[in-house]
Amino acid sequence: MADGTETTTFTSPWQRRGFVHLVAVVRLLLRPWPAAENRFIDRLVEDQNRRVRIHLRKHPPRRVLLIMPRCVKKTGCRAPVQESLFECLDCCRCPLGDVAHLCLEHGVEALVAFRSHIAFALARREQPDLIIASACRDRLVKALRSTPEYPALLTPLTGMRSMCLDAGIDLTWISAQMEEIIPASGRGRIRTAQGS
After folding, report:
1. Is 48 within the bounds of a domain?
2. Tens of pLDDT along 92-106?
């Protein structure tokens, strides 16, 4: 690159049209059995996370982007979470408060994406070395398909009160990813993207 930083190439089967088509066909065939489709998607995510961890052994991230879906925000909350999680530090009535504390501890800022295309556009603009994200299974597949060139550690949401409302996230998993990827000596030095 012109600024002297090294670019790394992450390879994924999601970059191949045939693989994307095969996944779509398998999901269509499994649609009558939602539990089987969920297990299939979970396997795709596990395979992705394994590929990313192998990639990170040789290419430690300098820029990390943490993406949370809007459905994690508590219904009725007026905090402008698409701009910052600062207000969430004192609230903690939804998982975003815990995410805000994790981000503060690790020197990472998080994006709460109100639409998946916003998250994809931000990823392309910021070009992070790593994305850590949680979303519903359908959106995880969409992310893998839409931004296959970026290493992304993914986990499905842990549940919702109702469709797209008051979702839960696996904070233990997110915390473990941050601990593993952002070593103590690197905290505060990793440049991260903030929501738009």
Report:
1. yes
2. 778 888 888 888 787
CA distance 67 to 111: 5
Q: Is residue 5 part of a domain?
A: no
Contacts (Cβ under 8 Å, ≥6 apart) of 182: 64, 106, 107, 108, 190
The number of beta carbons lying within 10 Å of the beta carbon of residue 63 is: 15
Burial environment of residue 156 by CB neighbours within 10 A (0 to 12, 13 to 18, 19 or more): buried
Q: What is the pTM of this model?
A: 0.84
* Alpha carbon distance 134, 72 (integer Å): 10
Q: Report helix, strand or coil for 85.
A: coil
6 found inside a domain: no
What total of structural domains would you count in the chain?
1
Residue 129 lies in a domain: yes
Q: Single out the residue of 66, 96, 100, 104 nearest to residue 78, CA to CA.
A: 96
